[in-house]
Amino acid sequence: MPANTHSIPSLDLVHLTQHIKSEAAALGFQAAHIGTGTTEAHRERYLAWLDAGYHGTMSWMTRNLDKRFDAAELHPGSLRSISVRMDYRPEGDMQAALNDPNRAYISRYALGRDYHKLMRKRLTQLGKTIETWVGEHGFRAFVDSAPVLERQLAQQSGMGWLGKNTLLLNQEAGSYFFLGELFTNLPLPLDAPFETRHCGSCTRCLTDCPTEAFVEPGVLDASKCISYLTIEHSGSIPVELRSKMGNRIYGCDDCQIVCPFNSFSQPTREPDFQPRHSLDNISLLALFNWDEKTFLSNTEGSAIRRIGYEQWQRNLAVALGNAPTSDSVVDALQHRYPASSPLVQEHIRWALAQHHHSE
User: Fold this and answer.
1) Rounded to whole angstroms, how far apart are CA atoms 333 and 336?
2) Domain ranges for the chain
3) Neighbours of 111 (CB within 10 A)
4) H or E element: which one contains 165?
5) Which of 12, 70, 100, 144 is labelled catalytic?
6) Tell me: the pLDDT tens digits for 219-240?
7) What whole-number percentage of the chain has pLDDT above 90?
8) Quick check: is 51 catalytic?
9) Closest CA to 115 of 145, 70, 72
10) Can you say how many angstroms the Cα of residue 358 is from the centroid of all Cα atoms in its chain?
11) Is the CB of residue 318 less than 8 Å from the CB of residue 303?
């Protein structure tokens, strides 16, 4: 194919798109769709969400607004966004883990290797392979790493629809998947947008949210979301939300677990997404007893490491406050208290109070 991509005949672009999708599959992506690089249609709704303060302390969401709605602003020359999907759900009964208050619950996406590096590397490889076919095409890979409205781009490319829980849903795959994008200046033929929403009258994701974080269908108050509280929020967790967090110490999957479409999701075929260090079946006390060196060692290459040891201890203290009262729980909290940071101490005091003890 000639290097001047804008002069490629339309038939060649169709064949090129087929080759791109085949190569994406060979790289381990379960789907690849071609969409526009603009999400301007979502600007008004996004700005209203920010104005309502639903982004909590995530101030980065208020920056680079123009880049969020136009791929060419983020990466000059971009004409298309190649959206890819990679499934991550491991085997195992998620509800059973949630139902055991002595067991730690970690969002299923974080049990294995950090998806950011893995997917970005493969997307970059996809871009380089395309380059061997057509020459330089001004590509750039993104995986939850820049001001990109990933779910909106994926919906516009036909990968699924935006559900009432704000996640991208797919009829065959549910929502247990990661998204990534490859921006390119190739004028590839577009896939049709996914316009139909199949949620119907179902509201299970809204009513089952432990902290009642959904303001209305499709609108999430992130400041109440357990994923936000345990990961994005680094300060004190609001007292009124602590008892609602249960044993969830990193993220929350409740709105996915109850979604009927996730009954169609398939276990991941990606070895790197398999659980490490028994994090899918481990007690709160075992994790609370990790010192910082153990935490750093056991979370190497994991998305969990980004929250740091202090936040990890804070989250575990809250979960232990929600656990059944026992001598071992009280002893662990009291033992950890003296050497903990003021932030962790605050949450340990709360946890001990739940068990009618003090530090």
Assistant:
1) 5
2) 1-270, 283-359
3) 23
4) none
5) 144
6) 999 999 999 999 999 999 999 9
7) 93
8) no
9) 145
10) 36
11) no
